[in-house]
Amino acid sequence: MRVVVLPRIGTSEAWRAEARALAGEGVRPEDVSWSRGEASPGLLDGMSAPSGTPRTLTVPRAFPNFADAVICHSDPERFALLYALLLRLQDRPGLLADRADPQVGRLRKLEKAVHRDMHKMKAFVRFREVGAPDPETGRRSFVSWFEPDHYIAEAMAGFFTRRFASMSWIIATPDMGIAWDGTRSELIPDPPRPPDGEDAAEDLWRTYYANIFNPARLMVKAMQSEMPKKYWRNLPEARLIPDLIASAPARVDAMRAAEASEPTPTAVAVARRRETDMDLFLPRNIPGLAKEAAGCTRCPLHGPATQTVFGEGPEDAPLMFVGEQPGDNEDLEGRPFVGPAGQLFDACARKAGIDRDAAYVTNAVKHFKFTPRGKSRIHQRPSAGEVSACRWWLESEAEVIRPALFVALGATALHALTGDGKGILKRRGSFERGRFGAPVFVTVHPSYLLRLPDASKRAEEEARFVEDLAAVQEELGRLVA
After folding, report:
1. Is residue 6 classed as helix, strand or coil in its secondary structure?
2. What is the C-alpha separation between 191 and 143, in angstroms, rounded?
3. 97-101: long-range contacts (C-beta < 8 A, 24 or more apart)?
4. 383: DSSP letter
5. pLDDT in tens, 26-38
6. 121: helix, coil or strand?
């Protein structure tokens, strides 16, 4: 049995080096025992492992980022599972996109759990100032304590040093601490938990939270899902939550009973432009927005269309694809990207290593625009006014999903996301600044590929589209690392 003990700092790099060496010797997955930090007792290190076939490794472009995320998980079998998958990839390069494979499916769940843990760390780290500012530089020092489910501190160091570069700080977790002094970062194994205490900023934070808390939108289960109770003891605003929940019904009744004030001219104009009655008490999540959008009459497209076709996907999706509008199949089924273009999109996404189930897909326009021709309905491109009228829904989806990266599929989506859809073929493959915070990757809509009459040209453009999606997957790995 070959025993491999990986270091706690630099675990991913060490795993890759060990995996290459083991594969080069032809060591089989079942003949390796992996651990992090210390070897399991009772194992016989140094015994020659039964040999398989020596391999020279090649991996898909998406594998390194995928493996880095899985290695951060706390599952003790993650290293062995990854090594077994690595060897299988040599014979099946497209295996990583096979969501039906049990091993890939299990590893995808580990990857998703790590990304969710990283998202929670970004959302729930709260700094507390300690000591006085440095008399020479004026730099202030802060500490924070966070308890992740997985070993994500090293992977998150880059994010926090970029985000809080102007101050000195330590983020301590039970496994690893991140320290930043303004010039360099350092990882500290088993850091002590900072002493309890408060600073003036925590009072300001509680005041802010109390004022933005909307009792009319309260959904306790959804709130606890997004902000699990395990984090509450380290959040200054958490002590307010029980009283805010208890007082919410009375506050809602008071809001309803209060006499309405005269609206401003601007508010009247905005309401007229929207031209729809929205239920302000619907939850601000995707099902609530979809229910709200079902009665949308913002533009004339709602008349001939069968139904509103809203986006779908997980609300914590790091990746959001935006197309043009639903087609004939989507209009009848009420789901996005289920027609021929959607099926082609799914196939290309699999080749690029993108997990469609982990992404959110939607359209810039939510109703099908068409011209009747006999029994057929021929697609028509939405006008700028129709895209503008539907931007409210796209913006609402973006606020809920908060993806790390948008992908504009076609000129209409690019216009909706950036304000300019011109010259898409020249801009294809680039990352641009969007309206909703996260960067926007520019590529064509898969329906463009289907309309190409020449088979060889279509194959060439399809391969290029897969390359575009692979670049998306690669950039996403950097953004969520």
Report:
1. strand
2. 12
3. 97/349, 97/350, 97/351, 97/352, 97/353, 97/354, 98/350, 99/355, 99/357
4. P
5. 899 999 999 998 6
6. helix
For 415-432, write each residue's pLDDT tens digit. 999 999 999 999 999 999
* Residue 469 in this model has a pLDDT that exceeds 60: yes
Residue among 10, 28, 355 nearest 19 (CA): 28
d(CA 333, CA 343): 14
Residue 280 has pLDDT above 60, yes or no: no
Inter-residue contact 326 to 336 (CB < 8 Å):
yes
Domains of the chain listed by start with CATH number? 2-121 (no CATH), 131-189 (no CATH), 200-257 (no CATH), 299-480 (3.40.470.10)
Residue the block writes with tokens 């799914």: 346
Q: Is residue 409's pLDDT more than 60? A: yes
Q: Could you please report the per-residue DSSP string of 8-63?
A: SSSHHHHHHHHHHHHHHHTB-GGGEEEEESSPPTT--TTPPPPB---------TTH
Distance between CA atoms of residues 228 and 240, nearest Å: 15
State if pTM tops 0.70. no
Is residue 146 over pLDDT 50? Answer: yes
The pLDDT value recorded for residue 375 is 80
DSSP 227: S
Q: Which two tokens stand for residue 257?
A: 């009973």
Find out whether 358 and 473 touch, Cβ atoms under 8 Å: no
How buried is residue 190: exposed, middle or buried, by Cβ count under 10 Å (0-12/13-18/19+)?
A: exposed
Confidence of residue 202 (pLDDT cuts 50, 70, 90): confident
Based on its alpha-carbon atoms, the radius of gyration of the chain, rounded to whole angstroms, reads 26
